[in-house]
Amino acid sequence: MNFGILFARHIHPETAGLARYAQELAGDAPMPPRRRFNPDDLGAIRNYIYMIEVLRPENDYFFSMSGCRMRILFGMDLAGTRLSDLGDFELRQALCKTYDCVVATAKPQFMRAEYIWPMRKFVPIERLLVPLADDDGQVCAICGISVPEIADIDLEMYAGHGPAMLVREDSLMLDAG
Fold first, then answer.
1. Cα-atom radius of gyration of the chain, to the nearest Å?
2. Could you count the other beta carbons within 10 Å of the beta carbon of residue 61?
3. 155 Ramachandran zone, left/alpha/beta (phi>0; psi -120 to 50)
């Protein structure tokens, strides 16, 4: 796994940290193994990480972990929740489409986007989704990191005002093989 194209861009240190960790775990393999992936190895970056388990044959996803910054960004703690249980249909459909693409291609996806909170505050974010492999080399999970381009103290002011909604995105599927 090689994130050279991503490292050549101006990206947040947290995003680069996840990419370096995934690249190190993968070695010469196309994806890092899920069994070796430990968010605790990432230090403070863990606060921006979320883990999504692929549920087959249900074609659903389960959020098994959500860092504290993600709980603020999403306006809720998704850990322990299935994607199909999210109440917002449009959000559920958009996330399912994105996750399905990562699973189908077994390639990381990088995105810059803009979210808006209910009080009309726009916040740009950067997101990286990294597929993780089971022992048979199939995608069994996705590790995501979403880094808002706003100071943590400012992000905390939005907590409790509801979830942010995606208003714009520019995605890049990475050929990290």
1. 15
2. 23
3. alpha
**pLDDT for position 73:** 73
Q: How many CB atoms lie within 10 A of CB 116?
A: 14
Regarding predicted confidence, which is higher, 170 or 104?
A: 104
DSSP run (H or E) holding 132: strand 122-133
Domains in the chain (CATH in brackets) are 4-173 (3.30.450.20)
Tell whether pTM > 0.85. Answer: yes
117-169 pLDDT, tens digit per residue, is: 666 677 788 999 999 999 999 999 999 998 887 766 666 666 556 666 666 66
Question: For strand 60-66 and strand 49-55, is the pairing parallel, antiparallel, or unpaired?
Answer: antiparallel
Report residue 37 CA to chain centroid gap: 14
30 class by beta-carbon count within 10 Å (0-12 exposed, 13-18 middle, 19+ buried):
middle
Length of the chain: 177
- Determine contact, residues 67/47, Cβ cutoff 8 Å: yes
Phi, psi of 131 (to 5 degrees): -75, 145
